[in-house]
Amino acid sequence: MSTEREEARLDLLVKQAVYGLTEEESRELKQLQLQGGSNFDGQAFELTAAALSIASLDKVDSMPQHLEARILLDADRFFAEKSSSAAQTVTTSSAAETRPAAEETGGWSLWNYFPWAVAGAACVALAVNVMTDDPAPTVVQQPAQPQVEQKLTPAQERDRLLSSARDVIKATWAPGNVKEIDQIGGEVVWSDEKQAGYMTFKGLPANDPSKETYQLWIFEENQGDKTPIDGGVFDVNENGEVVIPITAKLKAKNPALFAITIEKPGGVVVSKREKIAAAAKIEAPKTSA
Asked: What is the radius of gyration, based on Cα positions, of the chain?
């Protein structure tokens, strides 16, 4: 085949691999293939186009090392066999006679080698793309989730106060002047150091918050009983044992008495103490004789 026809055939093969051929171009290529008698077809160009397409991808996974080594080994064997075959067809005549002989016998000519060289170049481009554009993924460590402290119940907070404070005082509740509340139990605990305390009740009736509320009063040891400290208001909505935290409005020191009154919703600033539901007096420690 003449050089012009060989070039025309190569052009059609490249176009077939990249864009596709029209019916007229397909017929022309088929005719050139029959006239040429060369020992390669469009497969090499298809492989080249595929390699170039892969090389243009944004992200490509790296080829396993064992597969890469096997492909390279097979390629070396393939080209070695082709070179050996081509060498056997070359005569000792002049260089001008070498090319026609190769073309006539279907040997391995420069034109036969061309598509495989292009495919090799595309594979090199693919390898460079993988090494430069697809670095090993960076492992992003997730930030440690902050541990949310479990909220303690009033009963658990009371137990923690008893175990941590060194100056906790206790007093037992006794009925006040309300006839309906004559079976009351429980105790009050208080710490001057932590300015915290809790009330435990047994038998304190549930109240209607829309009509009334309970209010705590703290009487200090060295202060008159006319100006007790407001210890906060609270409601009881269930029967049985309840634990209520003390919310003193002022700093309390050396309490001598705790009293619970029944007041209007929201509480009062000064209590008339008309309804005392319960009271707990701190007993002075006994001194040895």
From this structure: 50
What domains are defined for the chain?
3-133 (no CATH), 154-281 (2.60.40)
19: DSSP letter: T
Beta-carbon contacts of residue 215 (< 8 Å; ≥ 6 apart):
230, 231, 232, 233, 234, 260, 261, 262, 263, 267, 268, 271
Tokens of 156: 């658990």
Q: How far apart are CA 182 and CA 217, in angstroms?
A: 20
Backbone angles phi, psi at 43, to 5 degrees: -60, -40
CA distance 122 to 129: 10
Per-residue pLDDT of the chain (289 residues), as tens digits, is 577 777 777 777 777 766 777 888 888 878 777 776 555 555 666 666 665 566 565 555 666 777 777 777 777 777 777 666 655 655 444 444 545 444 444 444 544 555 555 555 555 555 555 455 545 556 667 777 777 778 899 999 999 999 999 999 999 999 999 999 988 999 999 999 999 999 999 999 999 999 999 999 999 977 778 889 999 999 998 877 899 999 999 999 999 999 999 999 999 999 999 999 999 998 865 444 4
What crossing angle do the helices spanning 43-55 and 3-18 adopt, rounded to 10°? 50
CA pair distance 68, 111, nearest whole angstrom = 27
Q: How many CA atoms lie within 13 A of 273 on its CB side?
A: 13
83-92: long-range contacts, CB 8 A cutoff, minimum separation 24: 83/108
